[in-house]
Amino acid sequence: MALFRFPMLFTLLLSSILFSNHSVKCDHDEEDDLYQGINNYRKSLNLISLTKNENANCFADEIADQFKNQPCTNTTGANTVPGTEPRFSNYPDLLNKCHLNISNTRDGSVMPVCVPGLVPSVVLANFTQSLYSANLNDSKFTGIGIGSEDNWIVVVLTTNTPEGSFVPETFNGANLISKIGLFYCSMLLLVGNLFLL
Ligand SMILES: *[C@@H]1O[C@H](CO)[C@@H](O)[C@H](O)[C@H]1NC(C)=O
Ligand SMILES: *[C@@H]1O[C@H](CO)[C@@H](O)[C@H](O)[C@H]1NC(C)=O
Ligand SMILES: *[C@@H]1O[C@H](CO)[C@@H](O)[C@H](O)[C@H]1NC(C)=O
Ligand SMILES: *[C@@H]1O[C@H](CO)[C@@H](O)[C@H](O)[C@H]1NC(C)=O
Questions:
Q1: What predicted TM-score, i.e. pTM, was given to this entire model?
Q2: Over the Cα atoms of the chain, what is R_g?
Q3: Which domains are seen in the chain, by residue range?
């Protein structure tokens, strides 16, 4: 019997690692809270909900990563004076990492905020009670991506026009294939676990 226990434990371990990695990457709690909070705010303004956009998520993560070592001050994040936003010289590289470029992101909006501990109610207020609220109250935006690192959380809004879709022509196929791959791999592990139990 001991012989059969090992592969079962092994596949359980492997699948829990796979699944936990996946959920850590896609669903930080703070990000989910903010997503719900922003859509409730949109609802209160009689605007349609923003749908999640994977590429915008990826880009929000990259931007959060650039900000993460900067402290929160009264001139950063939602307190930034318009026109003094930090410019990253590697912006095109960051877009590139998410298979994006300036032509499909130009109309989007990138909104970083800095809140110690990412306290959900304070984070949401930083979006709904700052200059950013004008973007949240804009019907041209239809999609959203959220990324966070340390005290920084970044929202990227997308449009349904080619200039702000955050969806490159060439990426759809690769995205689908990786999704099918992940699904296949999960099913294989699930079936393996059931069989061994
Ligand atoms: C920001 O904080 C500094 C001190 O840290 C203060 O001198 C300045 O007046 C503040 N600016 C605003 C706009 O609150
Ligand atoms: C944004 O968050 C900071 C904490 O970093 C807080 O001091 C500030 O009051 C918040 N701004 C708004 C508009 O809620
Ligand atoms: C949202 O936008 C509409 C029209 O653009 C405006 O009438 C309304 O006052 C705005 N609401 C908020 C909370 O900004
Ligand atoms: C951006 O990507 C699109 C297709 O994904 C391509 O047609 C376009 O030429 C690219 N633009 C730039 C500036 O690289």
A1: 0.76
A2: 20
A3: 29-196 (3.40.33.10)
